[in-house]
Amino acid sequence: MRSLHHPDVASLDLATVLNALADPVRLQIVGQLSAAGGVVCGGFDVPVSMSTLSHHLKVLREAGIIRVTQEGSRRRNELRLAEIEDRYPGILPSILGSVRSTA
Amino acid sequence: MRSLHHPDVASLDLATVLNALADPVRLQIVGQLSAAGGVVCGGFDVPVSMSTLSHHLKVLREAGIIRVTQEGSRRRNELRLAEIEDRYPGILPSILGSVRSTA
Asked: Which residues of chain B have a CB within 8 Å of the CB of A27?
């Protein structure tokens, strides 16, 4: 697999970050990442097809919210919590808190 | 003017709220509302036409983020900060903090 592009946090745009999170399935994905301690290898429990899930993961990756790396035959999805927190303090924790309380 | 619809906070959906905020002009609008203490009567200093501004204000109103009322010949736009805070703690303050720090 070729290396996937991950934007630098300094280049992130708040509207793009919020837009990436403004979707019920993507909120479920970041909620499951958060519940799993920030890292999920393999799949997510979401009511969409594999190709739709791939699209959602791409949107989150391109907005700087997750880092995707290959580990053997599986992909490792990691929430870039500390980096996002450094750039936009409080936003991701508060959104994750609301995802948890309504899950 | 007929009375405008304002959703009840209990009916709000996090993805809808985030989607309403996921736009550079709408972030400017809520930033200016915040800087003005939560209320702006009349216009905003944004680089869009009046009709585009009206569209953005409608999106924010329908997502429960602002309350729009007529005051004489002008419209009063008010940030529903306390209500949103009650439903989704921390989200609006953290977004407003990031808008201020990058303005």
From this structure: 14-15
